[in-house]
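Question: what's this shape?

___
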Amino acid sequence: MSQRSLAGVVLLAVAAVLGSVAQAQGGRAPFGGTAPSYTDGQALRGKAVYEGNCLSCHGLGGTGGQFGPPLRGQPFLDHWAGQPVSALFTYIQTNMPPGRRLSGANYADAEAYLLQLNGLPSGEAELADGPAPAATPAPAATSAPAPGGAYRSPAGFGRPAPNLDAFYTAEMARRANLLKALPPVTDAMLDKPAPSDWLMWRRAWSSRGFSPLAQITPKNAGQLRQTWSTTLRPSLNEITPLVYGGVMFIYSADTIQAYNAANGDMLWEYVRPLPDALIGGRNLRNKSMAIHGDTLYAPTADAHIIALDMRTGKLKWDHEVLSAEDRARGVLMNGAPIVVKGKVMMGVSLSINLKGGCYIFALDAETGKEVWRFNTVARPGEVGGDSWNGIPGDQRYGGAVWTAGSFDPALNLVYFGIGNTYDTEALLTPKPEITPENAGLFTESTVALNPDTGKLVWHYQHMQRDVWDMDWAFEQTLVDMPVGGRMRKLLVTGSKLAIFDAVDRTDGSYVFSRDLGFQNLVSAIDPKTGAKSINPALTPEAGVTKTLCPGANGIRNWPATAYDPSSHVLYVPAVDACSNFTWSPKGTGVRGGNDQRFQTKPNPKGDGRFGVIQAIDLATGKTVWQDKRRAAISSSMLATGGGVVFNGARDRYFRAFDSKTGKVLWETRLDMPASSSPITYSVGGAQYVAVTAGGGNPQDTAWAALSPEIVSPVNAVTLWVFKLP
């Protein structure tokens, strides 16, 4: 059934009919004397939903059972007297069935069946599946609300009455006070967070993935133990929790939750209503949320940005970024937002069929209104617009933004990495040679934007005319280090090739490159400009298969690097693999879609160990240490001031390494691979390490064929938290 407007619950004013129903049953009219409209057909569908999900507790025909009260008769009608029909919808959507959720349409149909059971007349319009539930609010310190929040009735309808005793009151007050004590998050905090906090995807605006916390060291890391965990709603993962002031915020599928970061007590929960086609947000793989002021900002599975009160989880505003039509074309929002100078910024990705390509947008943090938009595929007449072989602007595709941006407040520049085009024939014809006319700006580029206006300040194209899907679209790490005897403000970023470019982040001028040594596509790099010379044997030829190292999954992909500012060492998660690559043009004049074909295979020169962690000294380009294992890497790197780095792999092991030597200090086996970005934080003087496992995102499945003996469970997501005894 199609998704109907969540704001459009149709109510028919037939108070007289309702009054007669109430009079016949000897009680008050439900729903404030206003009858909801539903159809007999909807109630019939609802009967099937009820019998498949509710009958075991509430009995046949809602007559009541051992575990649930009757859902028909005067107690039911009295309970909902004076309340809108939307309150019943929200109650059952938020709470039923226990431990799982149905689609919004199923809830509306089940509600129609309940109304029919209670003698309310049907009509010509179906009951809509809405409105959207707000958050389950945090309890106030001076009150004793029902456990679990707003849409569980104070009378405990549908479950045993809550025991609101002194223990309960004191505990709820403690939880409320933890949230109440959170001061607003400032720009200064986002630039230099307190050591105890992790405030965005890679912790701070500099995107280093580094924490100064030093309680966990090479001497004691072996004593790490699990301290708490929780199961999250199933999604494709890639999730990074945020921690602020002892509160953890985490997001999976359709649910955002706040926890006491020390012990795992849930503080509030927000549930996002989604169209049926999105199956409860199971395909969500956003990397994180953003926090600023007293607000938490999150991208949703239906491609909105929402703003929640960080202390209560209540919805402040909701902005639709991608239309249903764009989502149907495959466009995604699977990076993470950042907040810069009162604006929420993020990019969209996977524009295989999005005419004109992707874009970066900025929303007003207070209202959600769009402030500016930057097109990541240059248009005719604009800077870079003459680099697309003269094809019209609406026939240019690509320019995906896969990860969160970075920000330098001293320079007032925000940086984003931009990916490739999938319609590579546009850049290969009529001539396959690389020229300024077919460079394809701003694909494979870093762009520096003015955050106030969204205007381009500078750009650097790391690789012209990429027709192999090498995606220079990952984290933009801001590094201050000596080069040639003087300190330089650098931006370091790497592609799927595991080549890392450093450019001056003030003006985009090239400084140096570091190649991990696994790729076979780039044969040389100009030491002055960074221009890449391509191995001519790998120039695409229609229908001809060639061995390309890497393939579309990359030597490195979205699992992010971590940078230690004290040593200038970059810790890189990588996979040593290649692919059979074939260019399959669609035909002259056919635009959009994907004309690249990849089949992952082992590196012909490899040793059967695919998972690699490589520690690179950025100052010298030398490898400090390398760890190679059979299982492909599945998580981002985490570096700490205590000299310990963390990473997870497809074999479900989560490990701690000595940052200087690469020695394994500790390992534990999770229930599923750690397919996310681990973090560290502290509460009450104790340092914690947290990581989410599971989900089965594309990066997980991409490497399964390399080591088929490694079989991992899927379909669940677990948050794991560790600390020293």
The first helix runs from residue 15 to 25. The two ends are 52 Å apart (CA to CA).
